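BUG: 3D viewer hangs when loading the predicted structure for this chain

Environment: internal workstation, default settings.
Expected: structure renders.
Actual: progress bar stalls at 90%.

Input used:
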Amino acid sequence: MTQLAGHGLSIDLPPGWEGAIYRRPPVAGESTHPVLHAGSFPLPVGRGDFGSGAVDAMGPADALVVLLEYHRDSTGTALFARTGMPRAVDPAVFSPATLQRSIPGQGGAQWFFQESGRAFCLYVVLGAHRLRSRLVPAINQVLGTVRIEAAQA
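Structure tokens produced before the viewer hung:
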């Protein structure tokens, strides 16, 4: 296992997985927040926060996990009412219609939640929607290792 940690997030990656935890520098007063990417394939440099660029490099047996933090003010809103990140997901919730950008054959799912006083979106992409029952157990293994520390003042 490889452990990644940064910005109050950490994850343990199994062999063959790559990951990164980063925060883009703000441009022109923009507010940026921590992002975690974990993939079962080599992650390309220069990918977008929700994995644009990476999803194009996925093979059918690949998975991409994105954990994106939102502004602290979002924590109390209805969209982030769920408490706690899902650490085990059901293959039945994945759909080709849930992708940020539709790529034939792929499937995705997303969850909005709050944990440790922080608001997040968990977005997971499957290289092949038809293989979801085979891919989700590995995703759940990875999700089970994610730790989210309390927001820093």
